[in-house]
Amino acid sequence: MQALPSDFEGHPIRRLYDKATETWWFSVVDVVQVLTQQADFQAARKYWNQLKRRLAAEGSQSVTDCHRLKLPAADGKNYLTDCATAQTLLRLVQSVPSPKAEPIKLWLAKVGYERMQEIADPAQALDRARQTWQQQGRSDKWIQQRMSGQETRNKLTDYWSEHGVEKGREYAILIHQEWSGLSVAEHKEAKGLSSHNLRDHMSEAELIFTALAELSTRQIAERQQATGMAENVTAAKAGGRIAKNARQQLEDQTGQSVVTGANYLPPSSAKPAPLPAAKPRSSGKKNQKP
To answer: Is the pTM of this model over 0.70?
Structure first.
């Protein structure tokens, strides 16, 4: 199954697409969070757990039809999560009194239709992403960098899949920590993100250094003909260090941190947390404050 994040009125909803059956699977707790208008993800999860127990006690088929599938969480790792098809979610929505019930029903129907269009014409997926970012106020320059960075990422993951690396996502997390000095989870926390896509909330500079780290990793791996886990871990660390060194040089020249807590969340969302303290530099120079 392919993980493809989506967005409902600024709220991320994780989902998977099963190509074999042409079926969407949505994170139930993400939809519940929208319906209950909970700012806290844990509160939404608690609400869903209580609702699930009540529906199960009533013999509801909706709970039976939910499946636990792996989805990325805030810390960048994949965890088993209750997921449901659009048809099942439409039934579950009836159990949650909410002013968002009707809008999310329409959204579910629209998402399914758009995916069928994208299968027939993949370029529509890119056009739709560009339109969404434009509506969210991203500049054309940012959008171009975001799309270019995704292409760089795809080439790297393609190399991994062809050279004995099954869990490429974990290596991508390793690369990110190497160049930025923060884990994916720490970076998301600094930006005030939960299940959001971190790259969708990166600054132009953060996108550029992410792409540099992943481009360097792929070219080093290709040069060394890296195969298997150990060799590709070495290439990932080396690629990340190249971007790290470039980042530190830029920060020394500008006096500004490349890694920031800035995000593109709606104004009503929680403010980003302060960045974790930077680790001491071996050069003896003082780190710039975030």
So the answer is: no
